Amino acid sequence: MDFKNKSAVITGSGQGIGRAIALELSRRGAQVLVCDINESSLNKVVKEINLNGGKAIGIKADATDPNQVSGLITKALDNFGKIDILVNNVGGSGNKNANGITEISDELWDQIMDLNLKSMFLCSRYVVPHMISRNYGKIVNISSMAVKGNFRVRGAAAAIPYAGAKAGVIGFTAQLAKDLGPSGVYVNAVMPGHILNEPGSRMAERINKMSDSEKQTTIQRIPLGRRGTPEEVARTVAFLASDDASYITGTVIEVSGGM
Amino acid sequence: MFGTMCEVRLTKVHEGLNLKDKAVLVTGGASGIGREIAILMAHKGASVAILDVDFARAAAVEKEIGNQTKQSLAISGDVSSAGQVEIAYKTMLSEFGRLDILVNCAAIGTNETTLTTTEYLWETIMSTNLKGVFICSKLAVEIMLNQGHGGSIINICSTAANNARVGGIAYSTSKAGVVQFTKSLALEMGPYGIRVNAVSPSLTDFDHGQNPKSTSSYRKAFIEQIPLGRTAQAVEIANTVIFLASEDAKFITGEVIHVDGGYSAGKFTVKD
A21, A198, A258, B80: which could join A223 in a potential S-S bond, CB 3.0 to 4.6 Å? Predict the structure, then answer.
């Protein structure tokens, strides 16, 4: 139990990769705060963890709203007394099908920047003073292989702002890591490639909508010949959040099957 | 610091990082980072072969691992000699019966500029640091393909691959080659379930002391550029190698993980 006595906040953990991270950290002994904008899905994750003997609390919050994020971090501290790990997982490419740059409205651009970047900034801003005061903290940000422009998110999605925002995650990670290194606070990022999430999740639905040839093309570009699982991403997040990664900060790990 | 790290190493329990029933070859495993990798992998349950030009020191590591009732085997050989590497694999296979993981750690450093680097020195560096990785990987991949159950190769690279330094011309070039070798071999071997990754350390201390090759002024200048404000301990590099070798990293290939205290994240700090 390498996360015994650790507490973690995972944003966007009601489904998909965030959910897998919450489950993995909990399985390894951490108490976790499950945070999502969707109350019913976050309740399911909290229940799943507590039924399996873990300790989880759930808080519904919009991670792009400063007041809600401030409240979220306060509640985490009230419940756990400390925050050792923050996983900035919340994000996404929106629910509008806007693939070309001329199809992207100002509102859509702002919405995707807020969801992926501002949420990470806000959560970090409210957690960092606490971590500095304890001289300990692990922040893991979720970027995406979309940064490299080498995969277009199909279905309801806006690939261009998404790629831009996820690239922003990398710069944010490097700068914050450099600022906080002397304070014992570590900041890293994980770049997932094509990940097959659980049925019903956004990515699972998108993959469902692909034609067979599209599915084939996607997989052909992955040297390991398959999509990854949310658990595989979660284990890399756990590695970075663990004390095994005691000399790793400001870096990015791709979990992409080699694409 | 080192004592704390050892504690981390010995108390760490996470089944995902178990290497039970795995057979590993660590090149350059007689000293420094390689030695730490060999010892830690044995501790995680692997059978470990240590290939090194310095047989006496390799044998000492074998003995150290044996004292912990773990299986290991010291082999004498030069990674830049295909003949010697072939014999090393035969010896290892006859002892362990399999090869699951190769760690290419053997390397030599230099402190010469272009004008002072002789052709002989250039070739020596390239032979060990780059050709050695090619030879050991090529033979490993042949064995792994025959076995048919995948495998994992981890190359010990260096932050020198991406960061030039006066005096590092041959070393940096060789390590940059290792990065691209890693990515290329990962592409070739992905379909066969053989994962190929690298770990890039910055200045690392080992063997219960400071890195013997670093002068105090070099150390001071280096540490000033590291956000974590200290050098690495070899076990911290080894921990990342274990992660890459383990089931926890089974969707990671073609990747280079920087274990550098934030060195690559940015190096120029204005002190107020």
Answer: A258
Residue with tokens 């301990």: B233
For residue B188, being part of any structural domain is answered with yes
Note whether B16 contacts A: Cβ–Cβ < 8 A: yes
| Whether the predicted model's global pTM rises above the 0.90 cut | yes
Mean pLDDT of chain A: 93
**The token pair that represents B63 in the structure block:** 């003995």
Q: Is A162 a catalytic residue?
A: yes
Question: pLDDT confidence of A159, banded at 50, 70, 90?
Answer: confident
Contact check, Cβ <8 Å, A248/B195: no
CB-CB contact of A181 with A209 (8 Å):
no
Distances (CA, A) of A15 to A98, A196, B15: 23, 12, 25
What does the pLDDT look like over A173-220, one tens digit per residue? 999 999 999 999 999 999 999 998 877 777 777 778 888 888 888 888
Which is the catalytic residue, given B171, B192, B218, B263? B171
Q: What is the pLDDT of residue B5?
A: 40
- Our count of domains for chain B comes to 1
Q: Show the domain range for B65.
A: 2-263
Best residue in B17, B251, B263, B268 for a mutation probing chain A (most A CBs within 10 Å): B251
A1 or A4: which carries more pLDDT confidence? A4
The domain that holds B256 is classified in CATH as 3.40.50.720
Residue of B152, B181, B179 lying closest to B253 (CA atoms) = B152
Cβ distance of B187 and A247 shorter than 8 Å: no
Beta bridge partners of B233: B205
The stretch B35-44 carries a mean pLDDT of 96
Task: Assess if residue B126 is contained within a domain.
Answer: yes
CB-closest option in A2, A178, A244 to B227: A178
Task: Check: CB of residue A250 under 8 Å from CB of residue A178.
Answer: yes
Burial class of residue B234, CB neighbours in 10 A (0-12, 13-18, 19+): buried
Q: How much is the pLDDT for A99?
A: 79
User: By the 8 A CB rule, do A240 and B258 touch?
Assistant: no
At the fourth CATH level, which superfamily is domain A7-255? NAD(P)-binding Rossmann-like Domain (3.40.50.720)
